[in-house]
Protein: Beta-glucosidase
Organism: Lentzea alba
Amino acid sequence: MAFPEGFLWGAATAAFQVEGATDVDGRTDSIWDAFCRVPGNVVGGHTGEPGADHYRRVDQDVAMMAELGLGAYRFSIAWPRVRPDAGAVNQAGLDFYKRLVDTLLEHDIKPWPTLYHWDLPQKLEDTGGWANRDTAYRFAEYAETIVDALGDRIESWTTLNEPWCAAFLGYAAGIHAPGRAEPDAAVAAVHHLLLAHGLAGEVIRSRDKQLGITLNMYPIIPADPDSAADRDVARRLDGLQQRIFLDPLLCGYYPADIVKDLEPFGFSKVIQEGDLKIINAPLDMLGVNYYTEHYVSAEPGDEGPSPWVGVEKLSFPKRDAPVTDMGWEVRPDGLTSVLLRVHNDYPKVPLYITENGAAFQDLHDGDGVEDVDRTGYLESHLRAAHAAIAAGVDLRGYFCWSLMDNFEWAEGYAKRFGIVHVDYDTQVRTPKRSARWYSAVARSNAVAS
Ligand code: PNW
């Protein structure tokens, strides 16, 4: 099963999840450093230390990527390294990313940077974080710093990773940093994140670079398609998860039904004249992160803070399917369907799968890690991606999540997503069976049938 010529094969990480070294070379706190210190927020009381010690082992890690035959590395840049406290530029922080990018290029690996993977400087949270419009302008300043520092070496820039998580898990459910359960703040955060994307996009495009953003997408399936209540919950979830981002980015408007649903939370009050034009700046690529489907019912479920602002009654009934350690059902067909959906419902834009992967406990067999389940997950999803290409989708690349085991946010280090195993005591890296399998895919540009 061959992929189109030039298809980009990569692996992804994010700064806070892998770098460690949280207090060296001038880095200051992000909202995740502060969030991790609050007992109960992260399983096991885990923090950004040691991460995978990527900050200190970056040379070795890039050499490992080269050995695996990867064509691209998706990483994120830590705002609190580059402009600590969102203040003056920190040369030492810039130097780390320059060195990373230079080393990648020496090995012929395309750098695929994301400007924001959730590590907002805590100093900005102290003045309201993403609920404060000013944060969007501060993000554009930071973007300008890094684009000008690295611009000669980078073709494509991604502004944000999964603004849905940043806004709704961070400000409504409160299960991600900054841990606020304030639905009004969450819907304001959605708009300010999109505005931040647009403002940074102006900087990126003015430098003749390619502009992208990454969204996490799920097919939303009503449990009972004959139930008007289930269908309405599915509409609302699709609106909050997908359309509230895709519509303004690709079409220049917010979905009218969702604007109405979010009226009690003050959504339209934060939108100013001219904002949608900024947000709708032409996109050169759209990143899709895919893990699972949402199968949803209007039967009441768990109470308490929820990311689904305004949706009072909902639950996610279990279906008969294998699940990963995250409790997420393995649903490869859903990947074909989200890709087709963007392709069919929106103006055409080149697509990349910027994350896809699975957490499984690793089985050690001698010195090796025989992650048959993760290998199977990747293979079934690559088949699903191939099916989308065969149906006409302009899919240009795939990044597995993740290059190596790392800090899985509120789940700490217990959940392992890596195709490379990390021993957190010794920081020894061991490519798993999935890495060997994926390496063969990347080198041959095909999945063996
Ligand atoms: C994404 N949810 O996060 C992120 O981009 C990665 O940093 C992360 O490690 C990966 O997926 C695996 O979780 C998500 O609860 C975290 O819906 C949580 C959710 C979705 C995405």
Summary: The pocket of 4-nitrophenyl beta-D-glucopyranoside is lined by residues 14, 17, 161-162, 165, 216, 289, 355, 401, 408-409, 417 (CB under 6 Å). Residues 183-206 form the longest helix (24 residues). The chain has one domain: 8-444. The mean pLDDT is 97.
